Amino acid sequence: MLLLRPNCECCNGDLPPDATEAKICSFECTFCASCANSKLNNICPNCGGELVARPRRPANKLATYPASAERIYKPAGCAGN
C-alpha cells in the first residue's frame, strides 16, 4: 500500500492525500508537480526512476488506511538538476 507521503522532498510543500499535483517514483519518493517538472525533468533524483502521478486514496478509506505523517525533505538532492 502506498504511504502517501505528506510533502515534496524538494520544496517541502504540502501534498495532502487528495493532492492532484503529487508525483512519485517506484520507491515512493514524493515531489510536487512543479518541482518534478521544472527542476527534475520528471526523473527521481534519488533513484533515477520516472516520476508519475501519485494515485489518490478514496476518502472513505483514509480512516482505516491513513496517509503517512513522516515528512522527508532533501533540498540538496534537487539542486542543479
Itemize the secondary structure elements and their pairings:
Layout: E1 22-24, E2 30-32, H1 33-38, E3 52-53, H2 59-62
Antiparallel strand pairs: 1-2, 1-3
Percentage beta strand: 5-15%
Structural class of the helices, strands and pairings?
A: little secondary structure
Distance between the termini: 29 Å
Order of helices and strands: EEHEH
Radius of gyration equals: 12 Å
> What percentage of residues falls in helices of 4 or more residues?
10-25%
Give the tally of structural domains.
Answer: 1
Strand order of the largest sheet: 2-1-3
Uncertain runs are: none
Question: Average pLDDT across residues?
Answer: 95
Can you count the helices?
2
Number of strand elements: 3
What characterizes the major β-sheet?
3 strands, antiparallel
**Inertia-based shape:** globular
Organism: Solimicrobium silvestre
Protein name: DUF1272 domain-containing protein
Question: What does this molecule look like?
Answer:
Strands 2-1-3 form a three-stranded antiparallel beta sheet. It has helices at 33-38, 59-62; strands spanning 22-24, 30-32, 52-53. By secondary structure, the chain is low in regular secondary structure. It starts with 21 loop residues before the first strand and ends in a 19-residue tail after the last helix. Helices cover 12% and strands 10% of the residues. It is built from two helices and three strands. The chain has one domain (22-78). InterPro entries: DUF1272. This is DUF1272 domain-containing protein.
